[in-house]
Design brief:
The protein is α+β, with helices and mostly antiparallel strands and 255 residues long. It is 23% helix and 16% strand.
């Protein structure tokens, strides 16, 4: 059924799974498929999957967030990876996270990512009151406003908890991108048996490593068997494949 967009046009629902994606531009070399303007590195971009005319898979057309208003989106939930977008924060100390996956922030290069780190000397439970500090929303709220979408409730403590997770993951990601490079990130992933593709850019690799550093190793995917699970806020999804051409679609949400 066609869906109404914020500019009054209609867009047919794509038959492709999870047709819309959002992420930060890894470089400033690409251009928007709609306005042809530059997609600036570090700024939010929205992608739409299209069936490729050259191969059996699909391609992604990337546009500025403001150029995605004609896609007929009605919820942030329709944008795959929206929980990877950063939350700005204030009065929040650097520390440890309260999750079921515990690990130390102080991962050294080439150090194994164990579930229970012997170097963690801070009691996680004692830090819980420090972690749920006040937040102001930035990229996510702006994206919701630009695309006229429903935004999460900032007063919801569960959302704040997810915001905490994303904030620290983003911080660790930036640190990894500054201190390391793609080769080092691939080495860390390989040594820990974590799935990745050689073509993935350094920011994506850094995000995966940061996730495992902060929350510990996730188990193998129960569907495809690969160690390819990655947490995004409240959601855990698989990035692996059943075969060379069949992608695993396993995901679940914490409640």
């Amino acid at each position: 059924m066609p869906r109404r967009s914020s500019v009054g046009s209609t867009t047919a629902r794509s038959a492709l799974p999870e047709p819309f994606i959002v992420e930060y531009a890894p470089t400033s070399r690409a251009s928007c498929k709609r306005c042809q303007g530059l997609l600036v590195q570090g700024k939010v971009k929205v992608g739409k999957k299209i069936q490729s005319p050259f191969h059996d898979g699909f391609d992604v057309h990337w546009v500025h967030e403001s150029c995605a208003t004609g896609y007929g989106l009605q919820s942030l939930e329709e944008l795959t990876h929206w929980q990877r977008l950063k939350y700005s924060r204030r009065n929040l100390e650097r520390g440890f996270l309260i999750t079921g996956r515990t690990s130390c922030l102080d991962l050294k290069r080439n150090w194994k990512l164990h579930k229970d780190s012997p170097n963690c000397d801070t009691d996680l439970k004692q830090r819980s009151s420090e972690l749920l500090g006040p937040f102001r929303w930035s990229d996510i709220l702006r994206l919701a406003k630009v695309l006229d979408l429903d935004a999460p409730d900032a007063k919801n403590p569960e959302v704040l908890r997810a915001a905490t997770h994303i904030t620290y993951r983003a911080e660790a990601t930036l640190h990894l991108q500054t201190m390391g490079n793609a080769k080092i990130l691939r080495q860390v992933l390989t040594e820990n048996g974590i799935f990745f593709q050689d073509k993935w850019p350094a920011p994506k690799l850094a995000y995966i490593v940061a996730d495992q550093i902060l929350f510990g190793l996730l188990p193998p995917c129960p569907t495809c068997g690969n160690r390819a699970l990655s947490q995004e806020g409240e959601e855990v999804r698989c990035q692996g494949y059943f075969s060379a051409s069949t992608r695993c679609d396993f995901k679940f949400r914490y409640r």
